[in-house]
């Protein structure tokens, strides 16, 4: 599973990596603490090495998760159905939950902390899509 | 010309002056006997000359003036001209006001007679009185208006200021009238007053404005009416109103700042505070130990973090409700029975477990203006509480009745036969956060707080009555 993790919080990155590793899904994982670099990576991956999953934090400086999603808008046609974005946030704000519906690339919103069950659900969705 | 001719000439000139004079003229001797009278006098009295000459003036005077005229005549015979004004009605004549001069005729240093010259000033007096009367009326008018008033001439001299103006400007009329306004209030030269007054005077247009009067430390509201004569300025003290306005503005700014703080606080709670907590929760999930001593420590740590997280989630819920003060505007009609049925459906499982029943006696078309999600939350919390705090010794029964009252407001009563609580002891705390009125089963003390918050946001009211071991009744008033 090609996974891109975008999160400026290094402890959160550490946790997510650990859980993916425990579930045996860490192969093909690229973690970015800088959303700019992550964005460049995703743009360059089009069309042949599109990630299966992007785990995207919302609350980041300079480029927020929302900015990241806006920046991917022009690539939506190339990404939809191939790349599933999961918004990964510690925020409890209900407005975030409403807003993810504006982006067709977003497959779901996960409240931190990420756990085994959620990762397995994501993996199952990706696997189903492949078949 | 000879001396005799001169005499005749002067005699003729004198007669001509005497006869043709428009004033009343008499020549009297010491005993007031009229020796000569001119035509205007005779006309006034409607008498012929023969009927007058040889009679004392007394005969033609009203009785109350006889001695007065005698005295004035005597004074004139002392050799001094006498002048006085008198209102007199000669017998058979119209009433007149006369300005009278008595001039003694001196021959060889002896007074041989007195000329009386009476000038008719009746009309003059009348018009003077009219002017005085009007001035008095105007004065009363100016004083009776509650505004302060200053009249200025075109050279900025003060011609009048009423009592109120004297008080407001702290000047006395005697010291102000006749003085130049700007010399009297030099600090106001160049002020708003100065500019506005000049504007009114120059354009001839009425000017209204509010300005701070530096000299007196007052806020004044002024109206200037220019005219040919100058400027009429009406003004009143609006310091009180201005202070109140300023206070209101400060209050609004304060409230705005507090609201900003609260929004900032909400943001911190939902983002900044939650992020490290989520990490800590994730880390404790990853931590595993086989050590029998360490295991309970880890367990307690995880529980503590979860408790902290649930408080944070409560706070976020509360702040989200408080933040949505625009609900009243975004209200939509919601059918109550619809929402109630939905809530009862969602509570089927616990209801069946405890063998309780909920009776809905709400008219099908009864609706309120509000937010469906809030109404759901209100009924869900109230009914959950009824189930949670039911009386073990009897099956739970909740009755919900609703109707539209005479004021067009919707009244809902939710009555249960549960364990109840001591309403009096609960007092004001009943809808407060984290306040609990039952020791078992466990609760967080959030439900009623949220119910009240949701009701208030929709502009409604809620009251609760409860009796221990009998039940609880909630009365809801919605629009």
Task: Explain what this protein looks like in three dimensions.
The complex is a heterodimer of chains A (131) and B (479). In chain A, strand 1, helix 1 (10-22) and strand 2 form a beta-alpha-beta unit. Chain A contains six helices and five strands. With 131 residues, chain A is of the alpha/beta class. Chain A is globular and about 35 Å long. In chain A, helix 2 packs parallel to helix 3. Chain A has one domain: Rossmann fold. A five-stranded parallel β-sheet of chain A has the order 2-1-3-4-5, with helices on both faces. Chain A has helices spanning 10-22, 35-45, 65-72, 76-79, 94-99, 116-130, and strands at 3-6, 29-32, 53-57, 84-89, 106-111. In chain A, 44% of the residues lie in helices and 19% in strands. Chain B has 479 residues and is α+β, with helices and mostly antiparallel strands. Chain B folds into four domains: 3-125, PAS domain (Beta-Lactamase), CATH 3.30.450; 145-237, 2-Layer Sandwich (Beta-Lactamase); 244-323; 332-478, Heat Shock Protein 90, CATH 3.30.565. Helix content of chain B is 45%, strand content 24%. Chain B has helices spanning 3-20, 39-45, 63-77, 122-144, 163-169, 173-176, 181-184, 192-203, 239-272, 274-286, 294-323, 336-346, 348-354, 372-388, 423-426, 447-457, and strands at 24-28, 34-37, 82-88, 96-107, 110-120, 148-153, 158-161, 207-213, 218-226, 230-237, 332-335, 357-361, 367-370, 397-404, 410-416, 461-467, 471-478. A five-stranded antiparallel β-sheet of chain B has the order 2-1-5-4-3, with helices on both faces. In chain B, strand 4 (96-107) and strand 5 form a beta hairpin. The longest helix of chain B is centred in the middle third of the chain and has 34 residues, at 239-272. Chain B starts with a helix and ends with a strand. The chains are: A alpha/beta (131), B alpha+beta (479). Chains A and B meet through helix 1 of A and helix 9, helix 10 and helix 11 of B.
């Amino acid at each position: 599973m090609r996974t891109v993790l975008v999160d400026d919080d290094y402890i959160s990155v550490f946790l997510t990596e650990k859980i993916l590793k425990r579930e045996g899904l860490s192969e093909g994982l690229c973690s970015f603490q800088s959303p700019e670099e992550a964005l460049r990576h995703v743009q360059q991956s089009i069309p042949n090495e599109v990630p299966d999953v992007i785990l995207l934090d919302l609350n980041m400086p300079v480029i927020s998760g929302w900015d990241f999603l806006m920046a991917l808008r022009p690539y939506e046609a190339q990404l939809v159905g191939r790349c599933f974005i999961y918004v990964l946030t510690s925020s409890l704000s209900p407005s975030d939950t409403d807003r993810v519906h504006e982006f067709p690339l977003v497959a779901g919103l996960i409240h931190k902390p990420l756990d085994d069950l959620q990762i397995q659900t994501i993996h199952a969705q990706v696997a189903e899509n492949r078949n | 010309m000879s001396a005799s001719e001169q005499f005749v000439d002067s005699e003729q000139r004198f007669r001509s002056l005497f006869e043709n004079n428009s004033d009343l003229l008499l020549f009297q001797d010491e005993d007031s006997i009229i020796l000569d009278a001119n035509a205007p006098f005779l006309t006034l009295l409607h008498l012929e000359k023969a009927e007058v000459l040889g009679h004392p003036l007394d005969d033609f005077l009203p009785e109350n003036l006889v001695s007065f005229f005698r005295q004035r005549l005597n004074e004139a015979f002392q050799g001094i001209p006498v002048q006085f004004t008198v209102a007199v009605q000669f017998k058979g004549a119209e009433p007149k006001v006369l300005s009278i001069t008595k001039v003694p005729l001196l021959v060889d240093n002896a007074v041989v007679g007195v000329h009386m010259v009476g000038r008719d000033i009746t009309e003059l007096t009348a018009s003077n009185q009219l002017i005085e009367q009007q001035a008095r009326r105007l004065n009363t008018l100016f004083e009776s208006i509650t505004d302060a008033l200053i009249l200025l001439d075109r050279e900025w001299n003060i011609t009048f200021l009423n009592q109120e103006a004297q008080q407001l400007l702290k000047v006395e009329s005697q010291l102000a009238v006749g003085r130049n306004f700007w010399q009297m209030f030099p600090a106001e030269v160049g002020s708003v007053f100065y500019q506005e007054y000049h504007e009114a005077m120059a354009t001839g247009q009425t000017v209204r404005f509010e300005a701070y009067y530096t000299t007196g430390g007052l806020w004044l509201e002024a109206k200037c009416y220019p005219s040919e004569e100058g400027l009429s300025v009406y003004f009143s003290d609006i310091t009180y109103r201005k202070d109140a306005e300023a206070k209101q503005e400060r209050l609004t700014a304060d409230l705005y700042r507090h609201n900003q703080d609260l929004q900032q606080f909400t943001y911190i709670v939902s983002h900044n505070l939650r992020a490290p907590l989520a990490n800590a929760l994730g880390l404790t999930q990853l931590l595993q130990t086989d050590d029998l001593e360490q295991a309970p420590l880890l367990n307690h740590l995880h529980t503590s973090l979860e408790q902290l997280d649930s408080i944070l989630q409560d706070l976020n819920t509360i702040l989200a409700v408080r933040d949505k003060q625009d609900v009243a505007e975004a209200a939509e009609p919601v059918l109550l029975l619809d929402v109630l049925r939905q809530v009862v459906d969602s509570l089927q499982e616990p209801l069946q477990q405890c063998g309780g029943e909920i009776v809905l006696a709400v008219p099908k078309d009864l609706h309120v203006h509000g937010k469906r999600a809030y109404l759901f939350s209100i009924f869900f919390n109230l009914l959950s509480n009824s189930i949670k705090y039911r009386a073990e010794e009897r099956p739970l029964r909740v009755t919900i009745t609703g109707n539209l009252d005479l004021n067009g407001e919707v009244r809902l009563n939710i009555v249960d036969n549960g364990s109840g609580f001591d309403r009096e002891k609960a007092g004001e705390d009943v809808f407060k956060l984290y306040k609990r009125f039952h020791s078992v089963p466990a609760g967080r003390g959030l439900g009623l707080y949220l119910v009240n918050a949701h009701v208030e946001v929709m502009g409604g009211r809620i009251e609760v009555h409860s009796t221990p071991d009998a039940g609880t009744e909630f009365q809801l008033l919605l629009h």
